[in-house]
Fold each of these.
Amino acid sequence: MHCRRFVASWLVVLAAVLTHCRSATAADSDSGYQVGVARVEITPSFPVRLSGYGNRATEATEVEQPLFAKALAIRHGDAAPTVLVTVDTLGVSAAMTEAVAARLKQEHNVPRANVAVCASHTHSAPALPSVAALIFSPKLTPADHLAHMRQYEAELTKKLGDVAVAACEKLQPAQLAYAYGTAKFAINRRALKEGKWSGFGVVPEGVVDHTLPVLVVRDADGKKLRAVLVNYACHCTTLGGSFNKIHGDWAGCAQEQLEREHPGVTALVSIGCGADANPEPRKDDLTIVRGHGDQIAREIGRLLKSDKSWTPIAGPITAAREEFALPLAELPTKAEFERRAATKGPIAYHAQTQLERLAAGKSLPTTVPYSAQTWQFGNALAMVFLPGEVVVDYQLRLKRELDAKRLWVNAYANASPCYIASKRVLAEGGYEVDGSMYYYDQPQHFAPEVEDTIIERVRGQLPKSYAASVRWEAEIAKIEARDRETPPPTGGIVFTGSSTVRMWKLEEGFSDLPVVNHGFGGSQIVDAVYYFDRLITPLRPRQVVLYSGSNDLNSGKTPEQVHRDFLAFAKLVREKLPEAKLTYLAIAPNPKRWSQIEKQRAANGLIKQSIAEMKSDKVEFVSLEEHLLLKTGEPQPALHLKDMLHFNDAGYEILNRVVRPHLE
Ligand SMILES: [Zn+2]
């Protein structure tokens, strides 16, 4: 161990504690919030194995960067505080979180749902025997290594309780606000061949979420910054398996950099659903890992410079937590485990462990215990906590189905059961489905129902006002009432999307075809996804025509988001209406939003490319731009109403002519 570094970091801790112990400012906060901030160093003081990579066989004896656990206790009015602990470690076990919750209950009467512990998933922190239990087969781990791991886990568990309690004892009036930034170093790591897993890779076209949610705590008058909590959906694995020193990886570097740039501030990092994303580049190179931390610190610096980026948080905190079981697929037979036990490596250790259980008269689990937890801060923000290594599909789906502008998803929270694959990832197979389950001592991969189960539990904890599309409820109900009065044809052609569809006199333009107009003004693709089962499915159409995307871009969504939302819509059509054809009408240029033309073209381009790659005659892309622009390449005011946004009759005449050959 580097003793010098060890002493220096304790000085930093002491300075931070002194800052936070200053008495509360005289002015009471209007926000009604009180926040306590605490930190404790958790760098081991003895040699210990590091976890995350299975190949490291010797104990780490050097500290390249100290490790920390930090806590925010947030109380509104006289209610019990909610306490968030972040920790530089691979993961925490359910038992560790329960121990923290028990301390908080005993010492500050904090309810269980108000306690969350989020791991950074650094792969350069001490191994905990209760997390990824079979990553090093305990039977093959030298007794002294195991003793050190156990000692560290016991010490860490106590310190997590200490830091949580300390935060509750430092409550001071505070203001809270949040913002969303962007960081781009997370890259999808699942290489696929013909839709199936082919190995780890760097897959820039794969799904990721580059959003960087940031929460800041300021003092009562809103001037002094006290703490910054940032979340990013990416593995904390810039440093690889040949790096065998204590380090917080990019999450540690982000904290270090933020605290250096903002003296007196405590920086905390939680991880989103980044189980299938790796940092890029990835190398045992401290310059690169610092660079990733620096990207986050720089983005937060940029956000802090602009008042406009921040949404203030107000209102009481509502915490909810449920435990439930996630089903595994049918277990392998005893004979299959016997076959695997005769091989070598992790698969053999795993099979031997299962066989020992069976020999001892125990049955193997067919489900995995899980939990979903949410904190709502008034109507401003909802935070979700999901245990385990959750793939990005969960975060993206929650953001589609709930109000993405008020949502924050923490994974690697409260427990480390295993990877949590989605329906899509389960169908593709690979490491996050099977290969990782051996290390986590799970007897089988998940059944596909896990995705809907988790999403439904989270949605069930949040009020209806968090649903993405609640603002359209009245309009949808009107369409349904109209359909009940005059039932539209089934098996016809349903147009859906935004006001360009709603205002389109389809029955006049296509009087010879069974067209149905289910457009709803101002809507985005996510809304068409959300209402799919009410507006589209019941009509069993032979063709679905979607015009949507312009409002999405206008609301600040990126072309990539619009593209992803389109893919979600296309997936619904394929799943729910396998016989139907989907026609996507490209985002059309108009004078009002002419400044967004490049974004519109980018979104159209991504969607067009995906449709081409689908190689199916059941989905097509219809370009509109070339039919609507003047020869000079500019939009034609003569085709638009006074608002210069919507088409007039002349505009729709062109649309009718262009679209007709595509209707079946
Ligand atoms: Zn991982």
Amino acid sequence: MFRNRNDLVLVGGVIAVAIVLGFAWFTSEAATAVLATGQTAAPPRPSSPADYTAPPLSGTTATPAPKAGTAVDIVRDPTDLPAPIGTRGPRRITVDLVTEEVTGTLANGTTFPYWTFNGKVPGPFIRVRVGDLVTVKLKNDVASMMMHNVDLHAVMGPGGGAQATQAGPGETKTFTFKATTPGLYVYHCATMPHAEHIANGMYGMILVEPDGGLSKVDREYYVMQGEIYTDEPFGTQGPVGDSYAKIVAETPDYFVFNGAVGALSEQKPLKSKVSETVRIFFGDAGPNKDSAFHAIGQIFDKVYPLADLSDAPMHGVQTILVPPGGAAVVEMKTLVPGRFTLVDHAIARVEKGLAGTLIVSGPKNEEIFKAADTAAMPAMEH
Ligand SMILES: [Cu+2]
């Protein structure tokens, strides 16, 4: 049956591996079944979590439908995020999300039917710490046309909470989860078709701080990249609709930071002063494209790749690759004044709307950067 002893050994090895894999499968299935029937002890609760009322999430709620021909500003200010948690212990937290469908400004003269969390893109920045018990209340605005829900990547549970929060117009759904693992996580609507709900603006991030919090920095910013697929070419004036065909073909017309063209350049640029440290919580909502996130004229002094906050950061990084549904935390010391452009270094996307600006003010620092003709480089005003 076997040509030689080596064949025999090989076949024996394959059988042994199959037995081990089979046992692992059986035990995992058995464990799942036990969990499903509730026969195990309840998961341990954090030691005496106190009730705690988190600051209300920013953003609008129940935005009135805009009048015909008008549009609302859906841009999330990149400074709109809660203060660091610091050293407090685990608590009970309630998060109120409201899904709202609004006509928003996509670019100068162009409006788009956004679907949002709390009226802005991205949705509110949720900030908790490891060990917190978080109750998510999702209300679908009564004026909505669609079902919506929320899947938070920080959740260990079915659908990340999507099934538990599937809500029709006017409905409110709730679930509670324990924040088990530090990290910066994307959340998004996961109502079918997922990609359309995400592309139309239904995403945000939740930060789960490690015990003791993150290191202190001078400024923190909240930035998310997204793609918008329209039924008219880039730059078309007036109201445009979404294009499901382009979403499926993965051919976006627009790439945007914080929801709209110019959101973080003309409208709400990031700011810093010479010698400060800036942290950016960066997420890629996709739904389809990676981001090669890069700040032109800066070096990321620290990067937490894939937003892993349990391990030491990397240092001296030029560009960080962030997948759709993923995030990164980057920090930079702004040593020199000037205007620095935030991009996806798949750089043609600048032509489709993707650029942000970091304005660094303060005295020149010619030890670090000195142009040949310094007269052409006036000091920035505060
Ligand atoms: Cu949705």
Amino acid sequence: MTTEQPGSGGFPAVRPRRLRQHPVLRDLARETQVSAHDFILPLFVRPGRSIKKEIASMPGNFQLSTDRLVEEVGADRLAAAILEPVQGEGGFVVPPAAFVQGVAAYCRERGILLIADEIQTGFYRTGRRFGVEHFDVTPDLMALAKSIADGLPLAAVIGRSDLMDAIPPGGLGTTYGGNPVACAAALAVIEVLERESAGARARALGARLLERFRAWQAMWELIGDVRGLGAMVAMELVTDRRTREPAAEATNVIVAEALREGLVLVKAGAGKNIVRFLGPLAITDDELAEGLQILERAFSRVCTAVSGSR
Ligand SMILES: Cc1ncc(COP(=O)(O)O)c(C=O)c1O
């Protein structure tokens, strides 16, 4: 049990003005290269603790973090909190329900808007239409994009009608906003996703991926963790299963090996050691099987080479 108290020095002193310059934030931005996350995640990371461990203890350190947030920023000065129901670029981190519900309750009690970033989780990728549905939480606003129009450029903000209606006519404009072709594509996509039970397809894909990835984990030490929600399934590659030291170099080699056979992978995670499934829900069983075979061959080559050189 931690004895750290808010303000006891357990957290870095983060002044809003200097937030971006803070060493913890700078390190995180460098490590993750996801500058959009700069403002939220570091408040949950204590100095000397690994990001991974802090995420694992999210509900526990949530109180400390929010207390510090109030102390440094002031809840009354916070307009909104943005949360990915399942972290995408962060490495498919599925948070405990208590964490998501804790953030939602915290925001609700203080009049802070809760914005769910469903850009990566949205449109059934987690097995439900939106990721927040898994946590029984209703956000005030949601950011949507990617799957919304099956590749045509479109993004959307949806939310409580009083918030959406607060913008006066003509108050919101963008160069490409409301493109009629992209909007028509989105309507068609939504219809097809519902008609073809995309949620069930995502869950079936996820079950297949989990089974295969776990079988590989049993074979290869390199795979330290297999996790996911719906079709958002990932493997965490480590040099040591106990310390979970990121195997960034081996991840690079796996990605390069897979690419040589035509399988494009995009690694993720703060340690650049997460291999994730980012296939479309419309992938056929044959395409999935082919992709998995390529990936298995890549692991087999890399893992055999490593154990052979020991
Ligand atoms: C969770 C999440 N939010 C936001 C974005 C950025 O979306 P856009 O390129 O539509 O601005 C991405 C892009 O990868 C994302 O994964």
